[in-house]
Structure formats: C-alpha cells, structure tokens
Amino acid sequence: MEIHFTEKEEAILKKISAAAEQLHMPCYLIGGFVRDKILHRATKDADIVCVGDGLKLAKTASLQFHPAPQVNLFKHYGTAHFKLSSGFDIEFVGARKESYQSHSRNPEVMPGTLIDDQNRRDFTINALAISLNKADYGTLIDPFTGLDDIENKIIKTPMDPSQTFSDDPLRMMRAIRFATQLKFTIEENTLNAITKNADRIKIISQERITDELNKIIMSTKPSIGFKLMFETGLLHYIFPQMEALSGAENIDGIGHKDNFYHTLQVLDNVAAKSLDLWLRWAAILHDIGKPATKKFEEEHGWTFHGHEVVGGKMVPKIFNKLKLPLGENMKYVKKLVELHLRPISLSKENITDSAIRRLLFDAGEDIDDLMILCESDITSKNKQKVKRYLENFEHVRERCHEVEEKDRLRNWQPPITGETIMQTFGIGPCRHVGDIKNAIREAILDGHIPNQFEAAFQFMLAKGKERNLKATDKA
Ligand code: ATP
C-alpha cells in the first residue's frame, strides 16, 4: 500500500523522523491521519505515537522548524502538541497501555509498546500506523487488518466489542459517527455490542455526547446516524424526545405517518441544501411537539393542533439538556420551529399582501432559511402533490420578494418608537405607549397606512386622541 503525502507533509514528517532518530526513539504516525490519507480525505491534524517520552520528542521536533513553534503540554492526557504557522496541528503521545474500571471512562495508564497503543484504539480503521523510523520509513503497520476494513467500508473494534464499549462508552457514539461520515457499515458483533451497552452512555459527559451528535448532524446524510442511534437504543438515553416521534398509530383503519422517519427525511433534505448546523437542528426539532399534541378526532382523524407552539417551548429545554448554546442559535431554532407551518398555510389561500408582510416581519432575516425548512418538510411520495406544493412555495417566495421590494420589512422596526410616543403626549412609560405602538405596527402590517414616518405619526396622533391624550406643544 503506497501512501502519498504532499510535499509539505513529507517535509514535516521528515523533520519529526530526524528528531526521533536523534533521540533513538521509535515513532509512528497513527489514527485518523493515516485513515484519512488512505481514504483520500482531507487531513487537518496528525497524531504521532512514540515509544518513550512524547513531550521530549515534541520539544526536539519543534526545534527542527524555524521559527520553532511553542509546545503545549496536556498533563492530564499525557500529550504534547504544537501548531505550525500553516495551521497544521501535530500531537505527540508516548505509546501506552490502558486498563479501565467500570465506573469511569478514565483508564489507568502505563507506558507500553506500539502494539499496546494500537490495542487501545477504538476501531481497526483508526489503529493503523505508519513508521517514521529511518529503517522502515513509510511502512504501514496494520495488526488488525484495518486496511481491509477501510476497503470493505467496515467499522469494527480491534478487541472484544462489548469490553471496548463498556470501557469507554463514548466509542459507541464514535462508531455511529464514523459510519455516518464515511458511509461505512458497523460490523454485526460490534453493532450488537452497542445495543447491549447502550445504557452505559450515561457515564459520558453531555458535552462529549453532543459533540459527536453534532458531527453526525453535519454529515452529508445525517439520517444514517439517527437510524443507528434509534435501532441500538442509544437515542432513548441521549434524546428521548426524538425517540418519542417514532411509531404510527392506527385507529379505525386510519393511520398517521411515522414522525421519526419523516423528521429524518426532512433533515436529509435540509442537509442537501444547507451546511448550517442550526438550520439542521430546526429540521430535527420542527415536529418535536407532535407526540404531546396528538389526538384522534372523529371528524378529522389524527391531529397535532398547536404542535409548533408546544415544539417551540420544548426547544430551550432540549438545548439546555443537550448543553447546546442557549443564546442566538437557540432563539433562531425556536423561531423556525414556531413558524414552520406558516408558509405552507399561506400557499393554500389567496396570498394577501398583509399575510406576506406578517411573515416577513415574524421571520425577519431568517425568511430564506424558513423557506428551505418548509420545502424540505414536503416528503409526500405523491409526485403530483410535491410538485404542486413546490410551485405554491415558489409563488410565496415571489410574493415575499415583491412585498419586500415595496415595503422593506426584513429586519424592520416600526417608524415610531415608544420614546416618540411618550414625548409627543408628555407621558411616562405606561399601557398607552405599548398599545399605540402595537396599533401602529398592526396598521402598517395590514396595509392601512404606508410604512413611513409621517403617516405613522398622524396615525399615532389619532390613536392618542381616541384615548384623550393631548399632544404637547413640542409635537
Ligand atoms: P476526526 O478528526 O474526524 O474526529 P479522529 O479519528 O482523528 O477523527 P480523534 O478524536 O482526533 O479522531 O482521535 C484520534 C485517534 O485517537 C483516533 O483515530 C483513534 O485512534 C484514537 N481515539 C480517539 N478517541 C478514542 C477513544 N474514545 N477510544 C479509543 N481510541 C480513541
């Protein structure tokens, strides 16, 4: 197996090799870098394992570069690393042996050989090493036939899978993440061991789980990972609200769609159109309120009234539990969940300017993302229906464009502020201020008055008069 390094990589690796030679310390490239090279994927950082003191090698290797990069030591992990000015990151670790206790994923660590270090790796495809030693520079060292597994697109643990996952349950998420990113299959025993050990995920910190979850979500076809998490039972522990979407009940021969698989289809559709993690989260959560609002009504069959409102309320709670950021990103997802039915309901009626204005006002600068979500939400198998919906959406888009051109409502703030109302009528903060402000906004959105200061000011004076407020001389 010939592995091709770029000229730049070759130059870097030769320097590390020279440093190792100087210290008489065997060293190897290992892990993700080797795997990604074989797969012809882009590589971003490199892991080096040496039989000896990793920090010493890192320091000696750093001096081969001009200027020498600063070496950082991570005592807790026993690793040292430096970043080159090109941004290339190199991490050094002394080869080690690990032994685990059942209550924690922090193993007892002791120095070991290359093979000890390969034994502790999570998957055969991640355990490949390339020698950087003068005698056999560039040789692939593959004790678990990882190369065959890469060729056959298989995720498999080098050791007993159940023990591997029990030792460090994060590896279950990693297995599913790699299967999703690389479109590999998880080997049967390995997959069964995930099912068996799924409940052990509880000992892993939420941040690490969410990190892997987000990597699954950012893959080109995230549904692969969600299906695997669902089938192995992991989803039950890490994201029960999503698991609750699954299943299709049937009463009197009337069923409803399985909202879990529908959501996955929407997520894949969004992923095909956008790389935005938060828009993908909006897809995941758009129907999350459905189980809580599901009813069977004699006249209508299955209904999910208000699921967008209930779903919107669930967003902050889910973000909090998953330790996702609670600021702007959360608000954006909540807004999209709340608004996800609006364009579709619009496209069913004669679209008035005022309905479009309200949509533009409520969605603000996220209108384009909302339209992507809504288009992705059409998962019917009926081609005619899909075609009709998409055409309707095109019409909604055109109408949004027209009204936006005319009224400039994106990121719009009504032309009269509370401050102006208080000054004009010589009043302090009180109920009138909010009421008049709302009335002005509504009048503009309904098209009763134009979106201009003078018209809004006159309207404000009239509203004040109705409330027996007197304009001061300054007005
Ligand atoms: P990516 O960069 O896409 O996340 P990676 O494989 O490089 O992939 P890292 O988390 O950087 O992922 O890990 C580097 C290497 O360390 C892996 O290839 C694997 O050999 C090993 N490794 C990482 N995490 C674990 C783990 N939990 N258990 C065993 N080995 C692991």
Report on this structure.
This protein is an alpha+beta fold. The protein has 24 helices and 15 strands. The strands form 5 sheets. A 7-stranded mixed β-sheet has the order 3-4-5-2-1-8-9. Strands 6-7 form a two-stranded antiparallel sheet. Helix 7 packs antiparallel against helix 10 and helix 14 packs across helix 17. The longest helix has 25 residues. The radius of gyration is 30 Å and the shape is elongated. The model has no long low-confidence stretch (mean pLDDT 92). The structure holds adenosine-5'-triphosphate. The site of adenosine-5'-triphosphate (ATP) has 9 residues, from helix 7. Belongs to the tRNA nucleotidyltransferase/poly(A) polymerase family. Keywords: Magnesium, Metal-binding, Nucleotide-binding, Nucleotidyltransferase, RNA-binding, Transferase, tRNA processing. Its cofactor is Mg(2+). One of its GO terms (molecular function) is RNA binding. This is CCA tRNA nucleotidyltransferase.
- Fraction in helix: 40-55%
Q: How do the strands of the widest beta sheet line up side by side?
A: 3-4-5-2-1-8-9
- Percent of residues in beta strands: 5-15%
Shape: elongated
Mean pLDDT: 92
Extract low-pLDDT stretches: none
What oligomeric state best describes the polypeptide chains here? single chain
Bound molecules: adenosine-5'-triphosphate
Using only CA atoms, what is the Rg? 30 Å
Largest sheet: 7 strands, mixed
Query: What structural class results from the helix and strand content?
Result: alpha+beta
State the end-to-end distance: 84 Å
Number of helices: 24
